[in-house]
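Risk register update: the risk that structure generation would not scale has been downgraded. Supporting records follow, first protein first.
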Amino acid sequence: MLDIALEVKRTRPDVKVIFGGVHPSAVPERVLAQPQVDYVCVGEADAAFPLILKAIEQGASGAPIVNTRYKSSNGEVIRGPQTGFVQDLDSLPLFDKSLWEDHICVDDWYLTMASRGCPYRCTFCFNNFFARLPEQKAGKYVRQRSVEHMMRELRLAKRRYKLRFLEFEDDVFTVDKKWLKEFLFCYKREIGVPFQCLTHPKYMDDEIARWLAQAGCRYVQMGIQSMDEEYKYATIKRYEKNEDVERAMEAMRKYNIRVKVDHMFGLPGEPLEAQEAARGLYVRYPPYRIQTFWTNFFPGTQMVHQALEMGLINGQDMERLNEGLGFDFYRSSSCVHDPEKMRLYKAYEVFFKLIPILPGFLRQKIYPKAFLRWPMWLCSLTSFLADALIGLMARNPDHITYAKHYLYHIRRSVLGRIGWKIPAPTRLRNDNMDASGAGITEKESAGICAPEDILVQTR
């Protein structure tokens, strides 16, 4: 992003560049020190961003802007107060999907969020520091949109697009059980489109799995990361027990929800035996997909300091990390001091990728050590191909949507060079309304899901 911003400044020096997100929120001064960056938003920018635009329009006067750092005309850094989180999510406008209709097939994969924040502070995750950013009264970090506000967005989306699939990108979609029950009843009755969401082992049980399945949930993504209880509790601040993980897996399997699990390799100080414990879980409860991630260290997180104390990274590595330079720890051979450990991780990764298609008797008989003699490059290639081909053959919406997206833009690029134009990827059902619902009446946008219906359903 710094490279893009630098190119923009070379072409149009008058253009103002605003950075925000996880990395700038962790080290705002570092980001603002870059000559191509004019403003940095720290934390949530719902209030800050319009004020930044107003300041640009009027000519920056040097007045502080909430949740913002910026450079005045004389180069002085102006630092605004760090305010609390937006508590009433219903006060925010709906997501404007029309911005993306010429670039992404919105109807194939409609992304949205019903909440903000996570109840956990895993040491490797941005929530580890993001929740502590406010200097004033922070308010609740986990916040939920009302059912009606959420349903209004989805009703409008269904009127505008030929929706095929939805994904709820909440950190933990199932965090509020009462809200979830009410919402899923309305969703099934009015929207009825297959969807997927994210959950946590502590927030999944038999009832939740049943409600999700009845409402059309096809896939659930759940972070497992490690199966060493003692290590998780002491080092990475994950407090679920292995029995919580197994209970969640069993509940989703019972209602035919396809589970995608996240598993991390290279967690600092994790015993190697943890991989074998994870293998046992995945053999007993084979997920639809095991998404493997190699540990990277994000600025501002507790895990960076853990890695520094363990000697996994040094001061120079930390500087590069804070500067945003490419620092992919486990894919840089110079950083890995134990090649045998790396080889073991690679062997487990191959096995984990194959688990979804292995028959039950082979899952029990094949062990990761069978891949230990494979060259590292072959393990990496096999893991990639297995994940991609299995996903495409199983028509995993993740794989299908990405494949369609890239094929569309390749075709668009090639045909564009010879002067041919192809239609936008999003097919509109109603182009007389925008994403906010302009073009239809309030009565038309209202739903049919009434409170008394929910009470009947509850009884």
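Supporting record for the second protein:
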Amino acid sequence: MSKSTKPKKRILVSLHGHDWPVYPCKTRDTTIYRVFHRVNGERKPKTFMALADAKTDAKNILKEIYGRAASKIHLTEDEKRDWKAAMDLLKSAGLKCGLETAIRHYGDLVKIVGHEGLLTDVARKYAESRGKTGTPVKLATLRDEYLSALKTDGCSKRHIEAQRSHTGQFFRHIGGAMSDLVTRESIQAFIDSKKAVDPRTKKNLLDAIKAMMAFGKSKRYVPREWEEAEHVSLPAIKPKEVKIYTAEELKKLLIAAPERYRHILALAAFTGIRSSELEALDWKHIRLMEDDPADRLIVLDLDVTEEASKRTIQITDQLYGIICGPYKTQGKLWTGTHDEFYLMQQKIAKAAGVVWKQNALRHTCISAKVAVTKDVPQVAYESGNSVAMIKKHYLSLMTQTAAKEWFAIDRETVFAGIEERKKALKKTAATPIVRLTLTAGT
């Protein structure tokens, strides 16, 4: 019988943070490897000639012990009872995690408070403070009340729909959480899940969550010390290139535009009003019939503007001449849908032979005003921007000559171009079509 020596060291096999030993043993000139199993409370060795086989066996033991199987053949009877009791407690508490995860969390909490006996005191104190600062509700309830409050406060329909979309995406991601249990980790996971979304949109999503949770604080649905969203990481936002049009491109757009949209293009080009504001604008906001031209104003109320306060914009003689034709005392300037509004822009640009540049009419107007007036604060006020924003993006985009050409486009220029376009289209339609017939031999 061969005489094996007592192992001098052991080899640990690891799986998910747990170890199981493999014991190398010398027998004559050969090394064998033993893995001890526990069967019915007794240690039973298994011997392997190859280390790889022994490691595989040890790893299988770890899988069995820390798996979800009902039978744990490597546990003693007492350990099996403890295991079952622990899993029953997790289930009764509604926690969908493994025992190892629960123990790790417990260990972290003990480290934080300093002693396991203090955990109950800390939890009780937190519960009492939460009861004093407010009562949490389901996130769905918080979101519904938030959107209702925006409507009550007179926010624009476009803003409310944007908030509905952004908060709805977050709600669907996080599920039925309570309002006081929204964490930085859950918000970060939501933002990171938006793989195909640009950084600016990610910021808009985060801002919507912050606004909703701030409303929750005001209703005492969220603890007043809640600051989880302030620690969410966002990708860097690259500044967008500010694109503008030339006066000739604007003239082509106005000439190609149908009557029901021409005044909207003119307002964007000569006042710098945002597209979202133009969609919400009503004729009642346009004071066009005043006797004194200085009193002719566009009043952007809180139900129209995206800003926190309303603003007014002077109607110039140039703009007056273009919008006086379709003027009404009341009713929406644009009566179509949101999608039709933007589709019309593309159709007009195609008909004019001009590339449509999103927000370029507004950008050009702001740049032209700065170039002509040199009055940055006034331009900032009329455009709903800050002085810093105007200085950063619009100071050097247009020369004074180009700006004067922009504001020289008036009613006579546009309608003369429309008549020329009609004649050209009529001439094209009247041109006879010559058909050639090929015969054999030709």
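The chain has four domains: 1-95, 97-130, 139-231, 247-427. On this basis the risk owner (M.S.) recommends closing the item.
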